[in-house]
Amino acid sequence: MSPLLTLRNxxxxxxxxxxxxxxxxxxxxxxxxxxxxxSGAGKSSLLRxxxxxxxxxxxxxxxxxxxxxxxxxxxxGVVFQRYSVFPHLTALRNTVFGLECEQAPLLARLFGARRRxxxxxxxxxxxxxxxxxxxxxxxxxxxxxxxxxxAIAQALIKRPRILLLDEPFxxxxxxxxxxxxxxxxxxxxxxxxNVILVTHDLRESVFLADTVYVMSKSxxxxxxxxxxELPRPRELELTYTKEFTxxxxxxxxxxxAIRSNAIADAAKAPTAIPQ
Length: 275
Hints:
This protein is of the alpha/beta class. It has a domain at about 85-160. About 40% of the residues lie in helices and about 20% in strands. The chain is built from seven helices and ten strands. The strands form two sheets. Strands 6-7-8-3-9-10 form a six-stranded mixed sheet, with helices on both faces. Helix 2 (about 90-105) runs parallel beside helix 4 (about 145-155). The longest helix has 27 residues, at about 240-270. It is globular, with a radius of gyration of 20 Å. The termini are far apart.
């Protein structure tokens, strides 16, 4: 069976600056992949390429064996670190926004059974992310964790094939972050969408992912592939076990080596003398 998503020899260049080079990746259907690496490695650029926001300078990207379309359709959803929700819409209206785009410009223009179905689906999704009691709140009335739950609901309402996550929990406190790990784990287990998670949190990547890819310093490319063979379902208690922490330390060692090499390379580079 062919992979769901394939990247072959993908490069991203901005003039003379190479951001990604020789990126190769196969993602099987139903998988959860995490990408880690030093800052500036091109992780977010890679997500933008898969999202369709950026066209690679060269290389091939296939979705279901067909060339990836530049436009991000319902097959791809995305959640960013900053809460990408509409401040003038309630939680219910924010969540149903994706369905509005597909079916009508405004929810108010959906009548009868279509309108009732859209509202019911949005309510179901909000219940799934723990916002069932907050349907009519506006983002300004929500905590950061609630807003990120809302962003997840908004991304998943269209039932995307691939969910792209760019540091989605980085701005949250540790307890809220772990709560959202479990919500994402449960949604992924139930719906079996595919996930590409970019994160700097090594515990997060090991807890959630089936496979962790480590990127080099810029220009970014994959230098380590680590399969996470911890049994599922994973509970938070697992994060305190030696088996779990050994994997985290192993990945930390890879990142540390990459950073050390980058510092050594910088030290060897000639320094410009002011004229």
